[in-house]
Specification:
Residues 28-153 form a coiled coil. Keywords: Coiled coil. The protein is an all-alpha fold and 159 residues long. The protein is 99% helix and 0% strand.
């Protein structure tokens, strides 16, 4: 009976060990399943990280390109602003020159009017002098004829 007790005790122990072994194997299977899921998750995260790293490199390259474009556009903007400033200066100079030209035109127009008035007065003087000259020529002609007549009369008297 003691040996039966020992056998029963051993059977119970074996049964307990088998039960514990079953529990451990179930836990092992559960841990292996969790490990497999974690490995899959790790692989997925590593793939995501690799993709993100690739995107980061692409963005860094794009950033350099955008910065170069920005610098180029800034230079173009500065050139255009300088050109615009030069054009405003030229416009101011043109306006000033136009104003001076306008003033000169008015002065020349006034001088032209004065010259035309003086020319008209001179034309009247020339016409008056021509008339006086013609009158004097007529008088000279008449005097010459009188002289010739007087000389003829004097010559006739002396004969």
């Amino acid at each position: 009976s003691s040996s039966e007790k020992n056998v029963l005790s051993l059977i119970e122990e074996k049964s307990a060990i088998d039960s514990e072994k079953s529990t451990i194997e179930a836990e092992k299977a559960d841990y292996e399943s969790q490990n497999k899921a974690l490995c899959h998750q790790k692989d997925s995260l590593e793939a995501s990280m690799a993709e993100m790293q690739s995107q980061i490199f692409t963005l860094v390259d794009e950033k350099a390109s955008v910065e170069a474009d920005f610098q180029s556009l800034t230079r173009d903007k500065n050139k255009l602003e300088s050109l615009n400033s030069d054009l405003y200066d030229q416009l101011a100079t043109f306006k000033e020159n136009f104003s001076l030209s306008e003033a000169n035109f008015k002065t020349l127009a006034a001088e032209k009017s004065t010259i035309e008035s003086n020319n008209e007065a001179l034309c009247h003087q020339v016409a008056s002098l021509e008339s006086s000259k013609n009158n004097l020529q007529c008088q000279v002609q008449a005097l010459s004829e009188e002289k010739a007549s007087a000389e003829a009369n004097a010559s006739a008297l002396t004969e």
